[in-house]
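call fold(seq) -> tokens
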Amino acid sequence: KVPDRAHGASAAKARRKAEPGNEAHVGAPMPGVVSALAVAAGQAVKAGDVLLSIEAMKMETALHAERDGVVAEVLVKTGDQIDAKDLLIAFG
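ret:
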């Protein structure tokens, strides 16, 4: 069986989307699974720091901070299935 995310329990877990142009939002660049989290809420990060990793199509992609800041909220956990443009991390 192949799960259909358009139906069933997964559809009820629709995530907020990252707002285009909002520098405080880190959105998913592609659908996949969160394979690792490197930050927590309240943590200060510098531009270039790894925030989290996403596994998609048997490849792992690290998302890096684009600017210095403090993580206000982490909206995913390791193992979460995500879609493109889902809001993953918000900066304060």
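The longest strand covers residues 50-56.
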